[in-house]
Design brief:
59% helix; two-stranded antiparallel ribbon; 3 helices; mainly alpha; TolC family protein
């Protein structure tokens, strides 16, 4: 049992030393690679983006709205003489 424990510990230490030899990549490059090479990651990403836009649309419907309308009304009434009534 002690030998197994020792070997596992040694393997983790060696793996850690080996991992430090690789270049450190920025998260954005790792995400881009995952989106390009893993369809399930891309599907999850686009579903999340769609839900975000749906949420924004739902929030927008809660904001107050402003409606504008205008009109012109020009009624003339015939009267005697030179007098004209315009309303």
């Amino acid at each position: 049992m002690k030998i197994k424990h020792f070997l596992l510990t040694a393997a983790f230490i060696m793996q850690g030393a080996h991992a430090s030899e690789f270049a450190i990549l920025p998260l954005s490059k790792l995400v881009d690679a995952a989106l390009k090479h893993q369809p399930s990651v891309a599907i999850s990403y686009y579903e999340t983006e769609k839900k975000k836009s749906d949420l924004e649309a739902t929030r927008a419907s809660l904001y107050p709205t402003l409606d504008l309308s205008s009109g012109i009304n020009n009624n003339r009434k015939e009267s005697s003489g030179d007098e004209r009534n315009i309303e």
